[in-house]
Every structure is written in C-alpha cells, then in structure tokens.
Amino acid sequence: MGISKTSEISVPTKLDYDRASELKAFDETKDGVKGLVDASITHIPRMFHHEIDKDSASSSSSATKLVVPSVDLADIHLDPTRRKTVVEKIREASETWGFFQVVNHGIEIPVLDEMKNGVTRFFEQDSEVKRELYSRDDAVKPLVYNSNFDLYSSPAANWRDTFYCFMAPHSPKPEDLPSVCRDIMLEYSKEVMKLGNVLFELLSEALGLNPNYLNDMRCNEGLVAVCHYYPPCPQPELTLGTTKHTDNDFITVLLQDHIGGLQVLHENNWVDVSPIPDALVINIGDLLQLITNDIFKSVEHRVVANHVGPRVSVASFFSTSFQPSTKIYGPIRELLSEENPPKYKETTVRDYVVFSMARGLDGTSPLPYFRV
C-alpha cells in the first residue's frame, strides 16, 4: 500500500480521519519520510501535525541573546591549569544548561565529514536496499532502519527517518553493517568511545570525584549510534523533526551538520544549538542526572522541521540500552549527605530504557517516575 500525494486529497474532518490507517499505510511503504518527499508532496499528512509547544517561547528577545556554552578541549592533558578551567566550564554547563559544545575534541575533521556523508549515502541509496533493513523489532537485525520508533504510540509522527546500531560493548560484525557506511561507522564509533572516556573523566572531576570514577562505574561501557535524516519539509510550521524529550542515557555525543534545527529548553526559552564548524554537541542524559542526584541536568530538547534539507545528525548514546545488564545504578554515595539525601531509586540501565521507550517521545521526562 502506498501513500498518494496529499495535495490531491481533500483534508479529512475529525469524524472521517482514520489515523490508524494512515500510520499503517505510511509504515508499509518502508520508504519513510524521504519517500513522501520523493513523491513531491506539498501538504504533509495529518499524522505529522503537532500541537507545537505553546508553554515556552519559540523565539524571544531574551532567547536570541542566549548561547549554548562552548568548551575548547585543546591541551587538557598537558596543562593542569587549563584542564582546571575546562572542568569548571563543563561543571557550570552541566548544572545549568545540560548542554555544551566541544571543539578540539580529538576527532579528525575528515572523519566527521565522512560520517555525515555515510549517513546521507545510506538514506539516499536505492529504496529496495533500504527496505530490506526496515524493521520495528529491535531484536531482529544488528542494524535497524525505520521512521519513528514510536510511530504507533506517539501523539504525532516526527519528520525524520532513522537507522541505529549497537556499537559497544559488543561491536557489530562488519558484514552486518551497510556497505555504504560500514567502515566509517566502525572508525567513528571507536573515536567517540575515546572521547567519551575523556568526557567522563572531566565530568567526574567536575563533581569533585576521582577522574576515573564514572568510567569505573562503566558509564562508558555501551554505545548506540542513532543516525537521523531530516528531509526538507513543505510545511515545517505544522510539525517537528523531533519532539521535545530528554535522553535516556548517561551522555550523548551529537554530530550535526551545518543546517541546524536543534533547540534546548533553557529558562523557558527554546535556544538554538547553532552549528559550530567541526564541533560536537554534548548533552547530559537522564541516567547521569539520576546518579548525580540532580547536580547535572538532563534537559529537554527538540529538533524543528525546516524547508531546507536534508539535515543529517549522528547521536552517539553512552548506554548499554536494551542489552542485558545486572549492574545497578543509583545516586553516587560520595555526593550524598543529610542535607542532600538520595532523590532516586536504584535501577538497571535496561529497566530505565525499557520504561522510557515504552512511553515514546511524549514530551515529558521519565525521571520523575524513578524518584524516591
């Protein structure tokens, strides 16, 4: 079953709109949002229509003056004074923004560029090849491609397609990755793992802990590469690229291209995380907020749709995610006191992620459900 051009369909009333059928028809094409754009639609299907967040200003005079912190990681292993300054910047950003960008992070520019190109090649390859990888069952294939993991549970679909793969602790077999991006996915993920070790050291120091503390806790153990493709949208004001959400991991390392669209909610304003050439965006995840007992903040963010595109991004989630795990995580004892008792129950990573994913991107954080 295909989806015809919605420009040729009369707009349904609430009484005759069959959302379930529209979702099913879209899903069965296995062509995602890119398939709609390739069909030259001029009006987006109703399943993509969002109630855009009215609670916070999308733009205001104060928001335009706000800039997400940027941290230069150059020479942090050579200059103790400089490292101390960097740690302080990361501490402040993690406590107040939950987001910061890093430059001179050690990953070569050709690697960043090739990773973005690899994602583009994947989504722009022949549809028949991609359809073979399309799935809604996480356990079926090492790499899964689909559009909207929460398609059937979310209030509205997002204007994006995605493929994702678990890269650590067990690296995929090369033959399980698509040939168009196989080599770069393996290389880029190794580089991100190295950067993650450094970031967890700096975050440990920012908490006043031993540099190895978070790595010894195995916060750096798992890595999931989630690669997004946001096609140009004919009616971006009606939809979102990604709904407001927080990340259900320890930290996320995001590679975004030059187009932009990522926004973070700061002081009730949506602030653009404007692309900085060759920078990586780092954000605190729910699990790091949980183990730091609310010292570091996992902050809501979203991606707006855009007439321009495609936009591509690669979100590398430090988490073992759905993979079996018996390790229990709770608030770090060294950070607790009579004045600062534990605010969260202990949980495994898997239990937290399963709970989070079952709810979909509904615009609210799962963290309150784990409060003591």
From TrEMBL:
> Taxonomically, which superkingdom?
Eukaryota
Where is each Fe2OG dioxygenase domain found? 219-321
- Look up keyword ATP-binding and say if it applies: no
Q: Which co-factors does it depend on?
A: Fe cation
Coiled coil regions in record: none
Q: Which UniProt keywords apply?
A: Iron, Metal-binding, Oxidoreductase
User: Would the keyword Metal-binding turn up in this protein's UniProt record?
Assistant: yes
Pfam family of the protein (one): 2OG-FeII_Oxy
**Which PROSITE patterns does this entry report, sorted A to Z?**
FE2OG_OXY
One GO term in the molecular function aspect is: metal ion binding
Q: Which family does it belong to?
A: Belongs to the iron/ascorbate-dependent oxidoreductase family.
Protein name, as recorded: Fe2OG dioxygenase domain-containing protein
Where does this protein come from, organism-wise? Pisum sativum
